[in-house]
């Protein structure tokens, strides 16, 4: 029996362990925000990986965005050296999950197994991928104990809120430097036969329109900032949204609608603040003198971020020229450049060959519509040999009754184990 067949057989034999591991991870409610139980899940992973011969570090991202004594940003990095020197393959998974939301028919933190699926918040995004990478690494170590190089597994904080208390912090500390790590696989749920090469760019900004407060019975004595913001939205509908729809990319972005530039109006707040739920009085009669809008602009690798920003400023200037008394401020909140690993990168080739072995067909190459922690590995770590590959269907992420298929996890773990064989062969 070939080594590849032995690896696939060994992973398949660990199916029950993979299920139990995924359930255990789901049952630790690492909700972000605010960032609960990060230390608990890191301690769990620490215990598991120490048994497999890894050297582990628990690292708190002190001073990072979101870190506090109430909700410390804990991360774990585990490394296992091979018998001889060589390159390092790093599996990075985020440990945080988003809010539960409404509409569940299963316990969000129960890890229920039903019809070949494991249900729970984070099952798909991405505790199933984390469990698959651990089982893949453990199976590879048992079948190929004389491997060259090193294997790293990390569980990191805050990906769902930007990753600054997780991968960004670790990258700044050198954990993703090309001298330390040569190949990175992020087990995000992009489907078991897809290799995700990167993601679109993002620019978040806040726009504020200004007015003048006055009594609501005499609005002509004031200046309504909400009406000014309405004019901004109207101009976006008239000119900006149609222009963005015409911009197309050669990046293999999925789904199809994300192959164009997009803009989402994330929120609009104007006038009197919302009162507490138990407030039973009426609103006061005031003309709003401030209105704020947050926008989420996703852009393509063919676009320049300066042009992206200028398009929005041009909208505001057109409104200003046409609308008496119109005043505004705009400032950027967050930006990430698009990134895309080359198809001939070593980690891409290794995973593509493994997909071919396990599924008997060629891998699909895709780009994510939204960003994930590859942005920090690329920008801060300066490591380009990075992809996302893992079990699960991206459309299920953040949804009620989120699940991951058990067969998908087993097969993805087989792909990961075969990729390790390719990249760490002695």
UniProtKB/TrEMBL annotation:
Its cofactor is Zn(2+); Co(2+). Belongs to the peptidase M20A family. Keywords: Amino-acid biosynthesis, Cobalt, Hydrolase, Metal-binding, Zinc. This is Acetylornithine deacetylase/succinyl-diaminopimelate desuccinylase family protein. Residues 198-318 form the Peptidase M20 dimerisation domain. PANTHER family: ACETYLORNITHINE DEACETYLASE (PTHR43808), PEPTIDASE M20 DIMERISATION DOMAIN-CONTAINING PROTEIN (PTHR43808:SF8). It comes from the Bacteria. Gene3D superfamilies: 3.30.70.360, Zn peptidases. The keyword Zinc applies. InterPro entries: ArgE/DapE, Bact_exopeptidase_dim_dom, Peptidase_M20, Peptidase_M20_dimer, Peptidase_M20A.
